[in-house]
């Protein structure tokens, strides 16, 4: 089992969600986050006072998947979130030790 | 105020040759004038709360948004009471050339039947009260985010007494500037130069906010600022067209030139910014509109539509330069540009009033005793210089006295925490 964490552009969230749903992904968690990478921030100007905003708004998406579906999940996210411009984000993959569905007590693959 | 004299003159002249049933003699109430002035008074109050309060509140940091609204609201209350106690009398009761008398203390003699021209004196007194409210409230922008609330209340009470009431008397109450034939229809000198220069004094005496200018201090909600500027724009018709104290042709022209100058200044600031910074901004166009409203204030009873547009463009460009470049070059921290917009806009308007009042340029003519543009501009210049000097010195002294006795500034810790929590135990945004 893998935990896929993707940082994407906020306006791409709907496309990514739709692609993952089409793959049969049953659930995901989304958080509004801020950060910077190569894209850097932007400047704002108020009556001549220039402010540099370093952290840009992004969306963090977390999906737990069966190891066998990892590649297609990653591909779906990449395809849907890609604009070809700097600032499209990153995908992190980590091992997942255990999953439990709270309501039924099912574990691991049954709980995904 | 010119209307009163013009009307009385016209009435006398007509009365001598004709018998016209509805000619209004002196001291006869006009229902039309009164209806308009009741409305204008409400419009001017609306300029301060919520107009100016929102205009300012949107520009401060989120931790100080309530403190600015609170200051404007508290000033509205305090100035109204002081105006009734003694402000109105010192400004408008007959007295000397420097200060009015004490015959109207506690509004003595201002009753249901007393008239000022063609309107009830209660309406005139309340109309002027709203001016005595907004003028101190304008100063709030200069010391925002760092002044103690208690010290602000004391400063404002003293400022009304020693700056606003005398200057108001000089220009409108039968004082020496009025005798010079100065043209200040709705308060370029009395309101805007007065408040703007006091703001500069406050910014200098209080000193910069901690971290200024290195630290980022972005506005918390420019939507408020745009709403506030828009309310100011609408309310200003009461301010300028109401200053005629009558519903007549001069009031109509005052309304027209107010709209045109404001539109021109909004576009002037926007264009300047577009050229200088490559993008037009919302804060810029709203600031430009206010600069235009300020500049047309002294001129609104004496210039024509095309003169108004020139005044507006000039105010938009010059105030843009002063608020964005001059302040940074000189290093003082006038938080919301009260000096750069109100004092500078007021000076631009006061001087150009002397130019565009000329009949050849579409104006209504010069003031009494001034027979040329040079003489009028000279009179306007005397008004500007003396008001700047008087108000700066007196405001500076008042601030120093308040500082020495009770302290003007909040502690550094309170300033960091934000005045909303530190002084009022409240937060503007609970998210």
If you had to describe this structure to a student in words, what would you say it looks like?
The complex is a heterodimer of chains A (112) and B (431). With 112 residues, chain A is an alpha+beta fold. Chain A contains two helices and six strands. Chain A has helices spanning 13-23, 70-81, and strands at residues 2-8, 29-35, 42-46, 49-53, 56-65, 89-95. In chain A, the strands form two sheets. In chain A, strands 2-5-1-6 form a four-stranded antiparallel sheet, with helices on one face. Chain A has a two-stranded antiparallel sheet with strand order 3-4. In chain A, a hairpin with a 2-residue loop joins strand 3 and strand 4 (49-53). Chain A is elongated. Chain A starts with a strand and ends in a 17-residue tail after the last strand. The mean pLDDT of chain A is 93. With 431 residues, chain B is mainly alpha-helical. Chain B contains 15 helices and two strands. Chain B has helices at residues 2-17, 31-57, 65-92, 121-143, 149-172, 176-179, 188-206, 222-242, 249-277, 282-296, 305-330, 338-356, 373-405, 412-417, 419-424; strands at 115-116, 119-120. In chain B, helix 11 packs antiparallel against helix 12 (338-356). The radius of gyration of chain B is 21 Å and the shape is globular. The relative contact order of chain B is 0.14. Chain A binds chain B through residues 44-49, 51-52, and chain B through 59, 213, 216-219, 277, 279, 281, 283-284, 287, 323-325, 327-328, 337.
């Amino acid at each position: 089992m893998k935990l896929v964490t993707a940082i994407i552009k906020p306006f791409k969230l709907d496309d990514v969600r739709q692609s993952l749903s089409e793959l049969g992904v049953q659930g995901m968690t989304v958080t509004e986050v801020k950060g910077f990478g190569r894209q850097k921030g932007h400047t704002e100007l108020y009556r001549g006072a220039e402010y540099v905003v370093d952290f840009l708004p992004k969306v963090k998406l977390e999906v737990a998947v069966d190891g066998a579906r990892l590649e297609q999940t990653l591909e779906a996210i990449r395809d849907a979130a890609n604009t070809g411009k700097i600032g499209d984000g990153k995908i992190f993959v980590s091992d997942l030790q255990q999953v439990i569905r709270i309501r039924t007590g099912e574990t691991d693959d049954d709980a995904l | 105020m010119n209307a009163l004299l013009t009307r009385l003159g016209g009435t006398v002249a007509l009365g001598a040759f004709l018998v016209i049933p509805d000619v209004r003699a002196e001291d006869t109430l006009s229902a039309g004038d009164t209806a308009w002035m009741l409305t204008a008074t409400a419009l001017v109050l609306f300029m301060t709360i919520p107009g100016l309060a929102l205009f300012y509140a949107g520009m401060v940091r989120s931790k100080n948004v309530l403190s600015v609204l609170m200051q404007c609201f508290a000033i509205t209350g305090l100035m109204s009471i002081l105006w009734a106690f003694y402000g109105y009398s010192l400004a408008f009761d007959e007295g000397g050339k420097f200060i009015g008398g004490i015959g109207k203390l506690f509004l003595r003699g201002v009753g249901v039947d007393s008239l000022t021209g063609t309107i009830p004196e209660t309406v005139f007194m309340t109309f002027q009260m709203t001016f005595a409210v907004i003028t101190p409230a304008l100063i709030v922008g200069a010391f925002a985010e760092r002044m103690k609330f208690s010290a602000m209340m004391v400063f404002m009470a003293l400022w009304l007494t020693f700056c606003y009431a005398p200057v108001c008397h000089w220009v409108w109450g039968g004082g020496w500037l009025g005798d010079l034939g100065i043209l200040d229809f709705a308060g370029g000198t009395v309101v805007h130069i007065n408040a703007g220069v006091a703001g500069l004094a406050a910014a200098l005496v209080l000193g910069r906010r901690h971290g200024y200018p290195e630290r980022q201090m972005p506005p918390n909600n420019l939507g408020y600022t745009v709403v506030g500027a828009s309310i100011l724009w609408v309310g200003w018709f009461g301010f300028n067209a109401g200053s005629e104290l009558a519903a007549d042709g001069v009031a109509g022209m005052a309304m027209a030139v107010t709209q045109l100058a404001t539109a021109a200044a909004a576009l002037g600031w926007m264009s300047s910014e577009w050229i200088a910074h490559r993008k037009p901004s919302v804060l810029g166009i709203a600031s430009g509109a206010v600069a235009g409203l300020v500049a047309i204030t002294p001129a609104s009873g004496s210039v024509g539509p095309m003169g108004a547009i020139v005044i507006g463009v000039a105010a938009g460009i010059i105030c843009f330069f002063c608020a964005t470049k001059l302040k940074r070059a000189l290093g003082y921290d006038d938080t919301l540009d009260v000096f750069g917009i109100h004092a500078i806009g007021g000076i631009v308007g006061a001087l150009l009033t002397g130019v565009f009042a000329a009949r050849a340029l579409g104006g209504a003519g010069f003031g009494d005793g001034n027979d040329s543009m040079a003489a009028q501009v000279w009179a306007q210049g005397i008004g500007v210089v003396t008001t700047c000097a008087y108000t700066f010195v007196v405001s500076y002294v008042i601030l120093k006295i308040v500082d020495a006795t009770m302290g003007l500034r909040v502690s550094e810790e309170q300033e960091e925490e934000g005045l909303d929590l530190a002084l009022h135990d409240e937060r503007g945004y609970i998210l």
